[in-house]
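Limitations
The structure tokens in this dataset are predictions for the assembled complex, not deposited experimental models. Users should treat interface geometry with appropriate caution, especially where small molecules or nucleic acid strands are included. An illustrative entry is reproduced here so readers can see what is and is not provided.
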Amino acid sequence: MTKATPVIAIDGPSGSGKGTIARRVAVALGWHLLDSGALYRLLALAATRRGIGLDDADALAELAANLDVSFAANDDGEELIWLDGKPVRGELRTEEAGRGASTVAALQPVREALLALQRGFRKPPGLVADGRDMGTHVFPDAGLKVYLTASAEERARRRHKQLKDKGIDVSLAALSRDIEDRDRRDSERSVAPLRPAEDARILDSSGQSIEAVTNRVLGWARELLAEKL
Ligand code: C5P
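Predicted assembly:
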């Protein structure tokens, strides 16, 4: 019997740092990376470009089933994304794209359509998957599940800095409101709500450096890899 390709699921709310940590862990292990939030963002973006309404579940599901997307990280841990074979940059990270993502993500047919696409990223030697429901729905058999959190203030501050570094100007207060709204929508929706898997390890990154959090996750990963992951 062939052993299933190992998966590390990293879930958590917006701004918890899971994207950064997932990329670094993937680079350190030499594994593949799935940024599932980017799939929802890409879908909202692709729909808007094609004039498809963000409430048109059937059209969105069809579009989702045919998304041609790939991810990689360069040695600096910077994320690279291609849609239809072309690189996608800043437009995916705007708060507008985030809102669009969270709107289409609440539609069951869309989540269903993206399931196969997400599972297709599971390829040897392993996958690091980052999102909201990696450990609960998409990869329930993941050998390591991490639920990364941070205080709401710290998450807003981090997001603010991230956007500023990319030349996107938005007020901290507006960002805090946006993050709280999105958290609420994500955790209160009826399909695949944001919550830790029962067997997830909860890691609060407030006040911790990226290196410290990355090393913590890598430590767990190596421990488990030595056993069974
Ligand atoms: O992680 P990111 O901020 O890119 O995610 C954007 C939005 O996509 C989230 O607010 C959430 O609504 C949705 N999402 C989801 N399930 C995932 C990943 C993202 O519902 N696995």
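Some entries come with short summary sentences. For this one: The chain has one domain: 7-222.
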